[in-house]
Amino acid sequence: MTSSTDRIEKSTFIKAPPSRVWRALTSAEEFGSWFGVALQGKTFEAGQRTQGQITIAGFEHVVFDVLVERLEPETYFSFRWHPYAVDPAIDYAKEPRTLVAFELKEADGGTLLRTVESGFDQIPPSRRAEAFRMNSGGWDGQMQNIQKYVTGA
Prior knowledge:
The protein is α+β, with helices and mostly antiparallel strands. It has one domain (about 5-150): Alpha-D-Glucose-1,6-Bisphosphate, Chain A, domain 4 (2-Layer Sandwich), CATH 3.30.530.20. About 30% of the residues lie in helices and about 30% in strands. The protein is built from three helices and six strands. A six-stranded antiparallel sheet has the order 1-6-5-4-3-2, covered by helices on one side. The model has no long low-confidence stretch (mean pLDDT about 95).
């Protein structure tokens, strides 16, 4: 059974077809534009790592480092990463990664985008609560960012 502290779930409706939302999610360069990471010239491919420098003020020292798991055209995209891995003094490589999954569903007049980040119960207790809290707030902002990026609103 999954606890309420193990996963973050967010949803948003975007007034654009799934093909457009899919491109904003899975074109690494477009993803970087709305997410706040320098991914020029990078790609997302299943089984491959993608890295880039975070461009969000105050977090420029952080490297965005994901391992892409699945790409199911216009319906599902997932990767694994170390949640809230912002302290340069910590070696996060020894920790398990959480799974970030984006699910797209066509809806009347647009696309319903659901984002689920799971696996927080496996994160070391010393930083689990802060990682969960920071990523929960972060996903609120990122859902707004992708919506604005795709619709231009």
